[in-house]
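Appendix B, record 7
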Amino acid sequence: IDFARKLLIVSNNAKLNGDFQGAALISRAAYLFYKDNDGKDFNNFYLDMFDKLQVTDEFIKEKADGFVKSEYFDSSFLFSIADKSTAKTITCINDYVYSGHADGKIIINKWAEPLIVTDTFFDFKKFTGNSLDELQLTVTSVTESKEKNYLAIGGGFPFVQLFDLSKKGNESIRLNMPDVNDYTKKVFFTDNDNLLLFAGNGNLLMLNGGNHQYVKWNKKKQFNYENGKYISLDSIHKEHKVNWNSDSFYIPGVNFNCVSVFKNIIAIGIDSGLVLLKNDSLITIKLPGMGIASSIQFDTKGEYLYIGSEKLGENRTEINLCKVKLTDFSIELNQSQAGSITNIACSIDGNFIATASEDGSVGIYNTKDEVEWKYNNALILWFPDPLNANKIKLRPTSLAFSNDNKYLLAGYKNGSIYKWPVNAAVLAELICERVKVNGGPVYAKYIHKKDQLIKIKNYICKQPIRK
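Structure tokens (predicted):
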């Protein structure tokens, strides 16, 4: 393992000397040594390795005239500038990445190395004939239906745009909100293809997927839980006064801050915990030690719910990430990044969650290691603000895992979309793809001990260059 770390230093020297191909190959060998000697994929070694990929414009300007950025060793393949306005939402659909932006555009990036902007899927500014102001143009939600035949768009405008992807030309239907002055923060498809709308005023609205008429909310039994224990309704824990049999669902005096949906179960983040709407039940779960819920997300199997919160107080040291087990409503608290959590995403396989923070960082967590969660060590990767070196805040505004669980896509305030590899194996695979050659002899000018050079040759040459 120590030898692998020394190889990274050699790799960096190779990069500084302008030999990017050699640097890439040496980083690849370093990973192989590290892995085969019981080094873990998810730790600081990954970030050291990732750092060797960084070739910035500032670095090139510092070099002598005639220096050319190598095609082999360029971090630009990890990101794409989809649009100049904030990337509010990202959705991965088949081989494409749909990103919704603050200027009303929905951009399609083709899933490739690098991400290639292929088209503007929709432009609300052109669609409305400039009848909406800048705030109303914002796209906040792009959601695919379960059967993958509809795409629902929500945002600052007083309607939801529904696209039929099964028809030529993507025919669209405009669904107006009951209150023309309202807008949608999020749009969700439920398991029966109904549309759940999280409105700007904090209310929830349900649209029938067939006739697009609003569905009235039926009365539900109410239950309270705290620290995984049931609390009976009494003079202290009173029943919520809900106006049932209405188009809009809300609880008087309770702020709905964020929403997530799994099948037909609805989770709502509130100031002091969360509310679950499940079958005929309304369940309130208190989360002691947490701040105001700012982001909420089911895992892909509906077994856990993850809640991110704002950090409050002068020292900003409060716990800001919570994991709720949905079978018994027990909770596990975790300390996340330095800033408030603004977004959460779960991988398709359920092994990882990612969080975006107001401090500009993105974190990836191992959800399967219960011991690490218990002892607050679940954070396995941490990506700082990409522009932090230039002292410019570039905050992540949206997150989505790729369908193959290899990458985390992060949308940022400047419209860029970064494609972060989720572990060292994927990162090494990227290096391998970029170099495209078996290059054992390339190490001769860097490594002088014959036995070590032979080991490197064996490690490189026994590995397939392409999977």
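Remarks on this record: The helical segments are 2-16, 20-36, 44-51, 57-62, 124-127, 370-374, 424-435, 450-461. The CA atoms of residues 234 and 457 lie 72 Å apart.
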